[in-house]
Specification:
The chain contains 2 helices and 12 strands; from the N terminus they run αβββββββββαβββ. The protein is an alpha+beta fold. The strands form 2 sheets. Strands 1, 2, 3, 4, 7, 8, 9, 10, 11 and 12 form a 10-stranded mixed β-sheet that branches.
Length: 185
């Protein structure tokens, strides 16, 4: 009888074990982000571009340096002939400002959409997301992007690998939350 009770209890607890594992796996998923209740996969390779020292609206240098990072979904590929993105997918864009002129500094960056041309260190001015974006289409990224108005992104580079975690709030009050681990070209 005791053996039957143990088997019965074990059988009844199995569904809860699988649900707990599934939730834990979703929480720790790498190279994904969520927006509006959907989860999207980010390629393990993104793009970084250095634009030099920031200037204010009067053309005066402000003492911070601009690095742009683009993270793209796995649906977008790089055309080997043109170097442009092909396909339709998601693009996450970050304009990051650092006080380090030689590299993007590790740390937490905060969205600041009202910089008045000052571009403070460790700020994001701006971050944006485009869903179902076609880089070779007629719409420009700026026309379809959803702007982030609050939030943070934490950048950590070790060797050639970047780890980026972000928790943003879009202008429509929807969350953009996720992480990236990989290289930036």
């Amino acid at each position: 009888m005791r053996k039957l009770v143990v088997i019965l209890l074990w059988t009844l607890s199995l569904p809860f074990l699988f649900v707990a594992c599934d939730d834990e796996e979703k929480k720790d998923a790498v190279n994904t982000f969520t927006y509006d209740g959907r989860t999207y996969t980010i390629a393990n390779r993104g793009f970084i571009e250095y634009f030099g020292q920031n200037e204010n609206f009067n053309g005066q240098l402000v003492g911070t340096y601009n690095y742009d990072i683009n993270l793209v979904s796995t649906d977008l590929t790089v055309n080997p002939t043109t170097g442009n993105l092909d396909g339709t997918g998601e693009v996450l864009y970050f304009w990051l400002n650092t006080s380090n002129p030689s590299a993007l500094a590790n740390g937490t960056y905060t969205v600041n959409v009202n910089t008045n041309g000052t571009y403070p260190a460790n700020s994001i001015t701006p971050a944006a997301l485009a869903i179902d974006f076609q880089p070779t289409g007629t719409a420009q990224f700026e026309d379809v992007a959803i702007l982030a108005v609050l939030g943070t992104a934490t950048i950590n580079k070790s060797g050639d690998e970047y780890t980026i975690t972000f928790d943003l709030t879009a202008s429509n009050n929807k969350k953009i939350k996720g992480n990236f681990k990989g290289t930036l070209d």
